Structure formats: C-alpha cells, structure tokens
Amino acid sequence: xxxxxxxxxxxxxxxxxxxxxxxxxxxxxxxxxxxxxxxxxxxxxxxxxxxxxxxxxxxxxxxxxxxxxxxxxxxxxxxxxxxxxxxxxxxxxxxxxxxxxxxxxxxxxxxxxxxxxxxxxxxxxxxxxxxxxxxxxxxxxxxxxxxxxxxxxxxxxxxxxxxxxxxxxxxxxxxxxxxxxxxxxxxxxxxxxxxxxxxxxxxxxxxxxxxxxxxxxxxxxxxxxxxxxxxxxxxxxxxxxxxxxxxxxxxxxxxxxxxxxxxx
Length: 264
Fold this sequence. Notes:
Layout: E1 13-17, H1 21-33, E2 36-39, E3 42-46, E4 67-69, H2 95-110, H3 127-170, H4 172-180, H5 185-225, H6 231-261
Parallel strand pairs: 1-3
Antiparallel strand pairs: 1-4, 2-3
C-alpha cells in the first residue's frame, strides 16, 4: 500500500512493530545486543534491525503498542481471532465517493444495522477523515490554549505595568537626588531601563522554565497516543507571547521615563 519493498519471512523469523516511544527505545536497545526472540519456548530471529515505527491501520491515535508479525503456522493452535484489520487503497478519481462510503459504514454500525453480524465493534476510517479530525482537534486545543494564555499574560502584564508606573510617581524624589549629585539624563534613563527590565524579566524567566518543563511532560504524554510534534506550535506561541510581553515592557519603560523626566 505504501509502495515499499515486500518482506518475506522464514518460519523462524519475525518482525516487530510499535508506535510507543518507550517501547521503541527499549526494543531497539535489545536488538543491538541480540536479535533472538523467545515465543512460547521457541526461538525466533528478528529480521528488522530496528523496530518498525508505524500503525497497522489508518487511525487517529498511535495505538500500536507492540506487534509481532509471525508466520501463519504459529496461529494453527489458535481458533479465535480477536480482531482483524483491512487496509484499502482506492483511486483518487473516486476519492470523495469512497470517503462517503466509509462514513456510511460507521453510521450504519452506530445505527445498529449490523447487529445480525454479531460484531462487538467495527470502524471504517479514511485518511482524509483522520487528517481532518486530527487537524480540527489540534486547532481547537491550540486556540483555547493561546486564548487563555493571552488573557492571563495581558492581565499579569497590566498589573506589572501599573505597579511600575505607580512606583515612578513615588520615586521622583530619589531621581531628583540622583540629579543633584551629578547624574545626567542618560544615566537616569539607563537606571530606569534596568529597573524595568529586571522587574519584567524575572517573571518571564520563571514562566519560560515552567513552560519548557510543562511542554516536555505534555509532549511525552501526547506521544503515547499520537505522533503529533507540538514543538513548532509551541515555538510560534512562545514568540507571540514574547513579542506582546516585550511591547508591554517597552511601553512601561517609556511611560516610567516620561513621568520621571517631566518631574525632575
């Protein structure tokens, strides 16, 4: 289906697959030391050098925890099939029509039209539907996250700015004293800039540390279920926040400086 070269297995050979990051790491480490695999007392040789990191079917989540591909002869002692998967590739000419058929299968199952088949679960998913659901879910989460983040960011920045501007009025006498002992306007401006910068930088540094740790934990959690890389989205979001934060910082600095300069 993917146009890759077919793999032929001998009776004593197997392939192993997984989309679980922890499982992939452990299995690849084991394969470096030994490619032998014991199943029910019989030794098999793993044909692949690295675990195949792919799903067995078109699905929203990376749900292939661990799969062993083995000769059919191994299954002769088993009469029960827990579940089966059928992957289909259809022509692009009838793409939308075939997508509609897959949706119809899901709808019919949910409506109870397949009860006579005695099937506990059946799902039919097209690549386009999976992509659409994944994109929609990711967009919603990002929108809510960015919206809430901006609300809290603007609130906290407004508090910081107001506090600094209020302090500017209270500090007039101190800046007058600095001017009397010989400090020029450039030195006073530098002092105001450093004071405002430190006041804004400390919360930002703390927030960045929390964000890096939080994003790492969330990424590890998401990768258990699906192969979505949130690094790029997180970077863009961080850049937006930094630009807004820098704008508030600069506005506060200019306001603070104007208050001081107009009173000394």
